[in-house]
Design brief:
Elements lengths: L1 H7 L8 H8 L39 H8 L2 E4 L9 H5 L5 E4 L2 E4 L9 H5 L5 E4 L2 H6 L2
Antiparallel strand pairs: 1-4, 2-3
Length: about 140
């Protein structure tokens, strides 16, 4: 859905890191394999200008790769707010969440940073956290 919707608003889906990573991990079908239900997608001429952003290459080789990974935003789970329903785990397209003793634990290396867990948590137990240095460097 993200692949199609990004194209609708004028963003090349292949430039989005989470889509690229999902495709690399086999979690996103090839565009010619996507079957649309209902009528064709409308042609939309976005009435807005897309905001500028810095492109971050997530395929950084060497010792800097670990540092860059720590600076990227990531989901954080609040043990006080989490009721252990497991909706975050069921919604995770990358299978990057394990439920351990009724609480979610993130497998950061597998996380594609789609933040479905945060969007779908009814209890608001998932927030997006980014290291302060990452906020300064990657804005």
């Amino acid at each position: 859905m993200d692949y199609l919707c990004s194209g609708l608003i004028g963003i090349n889906p292949n430039t989005l890191p989470f889509i690229r990573l999902a495709r690399e991990q086999g979690l996103c079908p090839e565009p010619n394999q996507i079957e649309l239900m209902g009528g064709p997608l409308p042609k939309i001429a976005p009435p807005f200008k897309l905001p500028g952003h810095k492109h971050v290459d997530f395929d950084i080789p060497g010792p800097l790769k670990g540092l860059v990974a720590k600076l990227q935003p990531k989901p954080m789970f609040s043990p006080e707010l989490c009721l252990g329903c497991g909706e975050c785990q069921r919604a995770c397209p990358a299978d990057a969440i394990n439920m351990v003793e009724g609480k979610p634990e993130l497998i950061l290396e597998s996380c594609i940073r789609c933040f479905c867990c945060q969007e779908l948590c009814h209890h608001k137990a998932v927030t997006v956290h980014q290291h302060w240095l990452g906020r300064k460097l990657l804005r």
